[in-house]
Specification:
This protein is 82% helix and 0% strand. The protein is mainly alpha-helical. The chain folds into two domains: 203 residues, no CATH class; 264 residues, no CATH class. Helix 8 packs antiparallel against helix 9 and helix 17 runs antiparallel to helix 18.
Length: 468
């Protein structure tokens, strides 16, 4: 259990720092600032997915990871990061023309440094995850979050606008890279030849396909919103989504990484407890459902506390963002099992299927660009993505009835709360007369998910398997 508590404790501190700093930033920057930052995510998000050429996953999957192989992967990751930085600069010119917004060029030029720095982080981070040393990772994540918060808030107070986010996060990443490389003191061999680097990249092609699909699955909708509805609406969409996605962005990835590393060690023969795969998925589906239901039930308090009361009139978008975030958590947990079992091709095919469907929904928004259609598209994307990955999980487990129950209950409760809150959302903070039904419905859903006998047995087995 020690490693489990390191992950949970690290995330509590990290989220606390980011929530406080995010609340301050939301009041210092305007929707246009956030809209400009969101406009570059179609490019920066893609580069973040492919910048390492899939080498971080390959390093964890490898049966043997000698110092020589570590050195080869290390320098290949650095070269890939440098190449990603060059692509970011070139892409900045294209984005500035597409959106007719010259400020995007400067943002992309500075962001290019993120990928160069990131190249020095990939393999040291993978080495720690491969060894399941999440205690070190948790401490470093908290420190990096604190440095980023101080820099970003400080520059925002000085009036730097969106530059406070771009420059502050870049400098914080530099601190992260220096500390991480000093922590992982493995011997690094000579810089490899171009042929050796190309050979490594070939191994990661399938993973890169999967990562590209994952990126466009999450960024196609924001890109469509920016193109069809403009920077201001995109800024509002982005800020509300950031609150709705707190579990998906901050908590789920850490347990995803832990589960992936643990499952990969099982595949390498360190443990014969094959039941961990099914237990891990059931725990993941419980977390996705419970966290999303809580956000739906108490989202008005979260939005008011983090963004301000003026955002309450856009709560329908927030509820749609919860459905999208729920799907992201489900995808993370299911894909981690598939990747740990080295079923990389199946993950790539799933990403292609979900991306194709998402693009069809986005086409509707391009044809009829209005906020009401945006809400419907968000719901359809969330339901479709989560259902696709639940179906894949059933294939993995050769059954998985409990996963389907969790899935149906979660979507029903979230949808019911969103539907009945439409006409009363502006008064929910002050008027609690109608809040009893919402709280009751939410906790009924949570109890039905967590309290199922199979869920309880699974939790018990999974906690024993997570002993650090």
């Amino acid at each position: 259990m020690k490693m489990f508590f390191y992950i949970a404790g690290g995330q509590i501190f990290k989220i606390g720092i980011q929530v406080v700093s995010g609340a301050i930033i939301a009041r210092l920057l305007g929707p246009t600032d956030f809209g400009l930052l969101a406009m570059v995510t179609i490019l920066t998000g893609l580069l973040s997915r492919v910048k390492d050429g899939g080498l971080s996953v390959l390093a964890i999957q490898a049966d043997d990871f000698s110092d020589e192989k570590y050195g080869l992967y290390y320098w290949t990751s650095v070269l890939a990061g440098a190449a990603s930085g060059v692509i970011c600069i070139i892409g900045g010119y294209l984005l500035s023309e597409i959106y007719s917004e010259p400020r995007l060029l400067g943002i992309c030029n500075v962001t290019a440094a993120v990928y160069l720095i990131g190249g020095f982080i990939v393999q040291p981070d993978a080495a720690l995850r491969r060894a399941i040393k999440f205690d070190f990772i948790a401490r470093l994540d908290v420190l990096s979050a604190a440095v980023a918060a101080v820099l970003v808030v400080g520059m925002a107070l000085l009036g730097y606008g969106y530059w406070s986010v771009v420059i502050g996060q870049t400098l914080a990443l530099l601190v992260h890279a220096v500390i991480l490389n000093s922590l992982v003191a493995r011997p690094i061999k000579n810089i490899p030849t171009a042929v050796a680097c190309f050979g490594v990249f070939r191994k990661g092609v399938v993973l890169m396909r999967s990562n590209v699909g994952a990126h466009f699955s999450t960024s196609s909708l924001p890109a469509t919103v920016g193109f069809s509805l403009g920077a201001e609406i995109l800024g509002s969409f982005n800020r509300l989504s950031s609150v709705a996605s707190l579990p998906a962005l901050q908590i789920a990835p850490q347990f995803f990484s832990f589960g992936f590393s643990k499952l990969s060690s099982i595949e390498r023969g360190f443990s014969k407890d094959g039941s961990f795969s099914g237990d891990y998925l059931i725990v993941g589906s419980c977390f996705a459902g419970v966290s999303s239901i809580l956000l739906a039930a108490y989202g008005d308090f979260a939005v008011t506390a983090l963004l301000g009361r003026q955002w309450l009139n856009q709560m329908p978008i927030f509820y749609g963002a919860i459905a999208v975030a729920y799907a992201e958590i489900v995808a993370l947990y299911v894909s981690s099992v598939l990747l740990a079992k080295k079923d990389n091709e199946f993950v790539a095919r799933l990403r292609t299927i979900e991306l194709t469907l998402i693009l069809c929904f986005c086409a509707v928004l391009l044809v009829r660009p209005d906020s009401q259609n945006l809400i419907w598209v968000m719901w359809l994307v969330g339901v479709m993505r989560s259902t696709t990955w639940i179906a894949a999980a059933i294939k993995i487990l050769n059954g998985g009835t409990i996963l389907v129950i969790h899935h149906v209950v979660s979507l029903f409760i979230i949808g019911a709360i969103a539907l009945f809150s439409q006409n009363t959302v502006e008064f929910e903070i002050l008027n609690a007369s109608h809040g009893w039904w919402k709280n009751g419905l939410a906790w009924l859903g949570i109890i039905s998910i967590v309290g199922a006998p199979q869920s309880l047995r699974t939790f018990n087995r999974a906690i024993k398997s997570m002993k650090g």
